[in-house]
């Protein structure tokens, strides 16, 4: 197996086709490499602090104009963005594969997720409902209304370089806000491509008679200090940040200090329970995708598996066979199911976790680096299946790699407690044909995660539901359901259309007029 020597050239062709100014990805100081080969594919222009502050200023000015546009008209801009994404799905999906290392279907799937949230947001633009509230005072009306809140900051991670931005941006824009985006330093090229496609949508919107201000979407590239500018600027009332729990511990208090609204999507040490009545064929497929997909680099990746003692040997034997059959390699090739880790640091962290598991009594299958001819700079690994005597040591921590810790259980209640006995609370699932177990798992005494599934894995969420988790996952919600409310401010209004002035709660306060 060998890689084409033109990966960098292909990247530049894709960026040019998507409308990105060549100087933005060739004349900068931020070196971008592809995890496929480790080779350099671009040099992105980094922003200085003053430039980031100016971008926020433009976004603030844009917000003040955009909030006056009726929300269905705002939705029309997102409809056009969805059309641009549909027209360029293959090119953008390919760029995701090159820059983030995702297999072909996952790269395309990420762009489809963007298209889906655009569709959702277009409908939402006519459904930003308030409430009419019963009032005790005659001749009065009480209601709840929702208003645009201001520029929304988005700090995204490498593993979903474009989809997470769209979850926030599509909703924020129909809600009347502007957006300032700080993408991961590891995946800035896809961000440049998305912003270029958004600019095309704006041009079409204006050509059709729409009024859209400049600065509605700004992108600021750079290292941590640029993200800090976004976190600390008082003109940004809402900030969505995706990353590690450690990052959240820094970002959260800074936002709280200035009373900004935080949408945090942090660590996710996700678990699944396999019960005696489970359909093992179904469970096996779901476990494999959830644990191995995206090389274990999803926020919702399955990392802990609790298997009932009566079926443990049968299932684990089948899992070993499945793991051995998975094709690891160039994500560009159609037969590949597992691409590379994002970089050398990710590989080092994986090996440290496996060493700790071994020291804690774990039995490891896989986990070794796979050397591919022509891909010396890529970090390809065999997914690791680790049988652990208990939930201890590295099992408690999230390692962003394809490591699945497997443990036995005998009592259902014990398995649920183990599911909940970690600091993180993003996603979880149970495999069972027992209605009582299924309902107990999703009840108030069951899983304590933001996502609790039955007979599907914890990974691969649809945009229709609110995405996010509890505890050290951060508590934020993005995408569907009523997540839109985070991007607006709520007002309670009381209108007196009578000629009297009754006070609530029977209070009397009479003065001579």
Which word captures the global form?
A: globular
Helix content class:
25-40%
Percent strand equals 15-25%
| Average predicted local confidence, pLDDT | 97
Uncertain parts: none
Distance from first to last alpha carbon: 92 Å
Measured on Cα atoms, how large is the radius of gyration? 25 Å
Count of extended strands: 23
Summing up helix and strand content along with how strands pair, one would put the structural category as: alpha/beta
User: What can be said about the biggest beta sheet?
Assistant: 7 strands, mixed
Q: Please state how the strands of the largest beta sheet are arranged side by side.
A: 12-15-16-11-10-18-19
- Quaternary class: single chain
Number of helices: 15
Mind explaining what this structure looks like?
By secondary structure, the protein is α/β, with parallel strands linked by helices. Helix content is 39%, strand content 19%. It has 15 helices and 23 strands. A seven-stranded mixed β-sheet has the order 12-15-16-11-10-18-19, with helices on both faces. A five-stranded parallel β-sheet has the order 7-6-5-8-9, sandwiched between helices. The protein has a three-stranded antiparallel β-sheet with strand order 3-4-23, with no helix packed on it. It starts with 6 loop residues before the first helix and ends in a 17-residue tail after the last strand. The model has no long low-confidence stretch (mean pLDDT 97).
